[in-house]
From TrEMBL:
The lineage of its organism: Bacteria, Thermotogati, Thermotogota, Thermotogae, Thermotogales. Coiled coil: none annotated. The chain crosses the membrane at residues 7-26, 32-55, 67-89, 109-128, 140-166, 178-199. It comes from the Bacteria. It is a multi-pass membrane protein. It is found in: Cell membrane. Keywords: Cell membrane, Membrane, Transmembrane, Transmembrane helix, Transport. It comes from Thermosipho affectus. This is Probable queuosine precursor transporter. Belongs to the vitamin uptake transporter (VUT/ECF) (TC 2.A.88) family. Q precursor transporter subfamily.
């Protein structure tokens, strides 16, 4: 059973790292073709793939616990970010403005991140299991792709609307949602074969251990 828990700890650690990195780099806007997105879009979809691996290997209960750990980690990051911003720097430290620029996020953006995280992660667990529960479809690539189509739409809509509703026109908000959704969906689709291979490898390793 040692390898069983060792793999779970590794997956949980990677999941938490992806969430924290996503929160730190979310403030930077980048261009991918015609789309303007936050840099976190390039790594955040990986979190859904990891939670799907945990779900498939360890079950829904453990997957939801891992999601809660990611949320708590994000909350700790927010608290310490405010400490970094508010705590006076030493007189010889001349880079405080850079730290403030990186860690200073508006409360509304932080709230949007929390709402999007919780709604999307739990939607992902539900959607990943739905084809298997209703139609007995076990193919991981299909189930992961199916869940990503739903999950990334939920994540994009919740984050953009909570962050920017009544700040920009509806057309601008729709463009932001569509841009994020398309890019995240493409990246998530590319992850599907990797997720399938990872699940098969983990099942084989754990079965060999037993």
């Amino acid at each position: 059973m040692e390898k069983y828990y060792e793999k779970l700890i590794t997956l949980s650690g990677i999941f938490t790292a992806v969430i924290i990195i996503s929160n730190i780099i979310a403030g930077k806007l980048v261009n991918i073709g015609p789309f303007v997105i936050t840099l976190s879009v390039l790594i955040y979809p990986l979190s859904f793939g990891i939670s799907n691996i945990v779900f498939e290997i360890y079950g829904e209960k453990i997957a939801k616990k891992v999601i809660k750990i990611g949320f708590i980690s994000s909350l700790i990051l927010v608290i310490y970010s405010y400490i970094v911003i508010l705590y006076p720097p030493a007189s010889i430290f001349n880079k405080n403005n850079a730290y403030v620029a990186v860690f200073n996020s508006t409360p509304r953006i932080i709230l949007a991140s929390f709402f999007a995280y919780l709604s999307a992660q739990y939607t992902n667990v539900w959607a990943f299991n739905l084809p298997k529960r209703l139609f007995k479809i076990n193919n991981v690539i299909f189930r992961n792709t199916f869940s990503m189509v739903i999950t990334q739409l939920v994540d994009s809509i919740v984050f953009v609307l909570v962050s920017f509703l009544w700040t920009y026109d509806l057309n601008v908000l729709m463009n932001m949602v569509i841009s994020q959704y398309i890019v995240k969906l493409i990246l998530s689709s590319l992850n599907s074969p990797i997720i399938n291979i990872s699940i098969q490898r983990l099942k084989k390793d754990l079965a060999f251990e037993e």
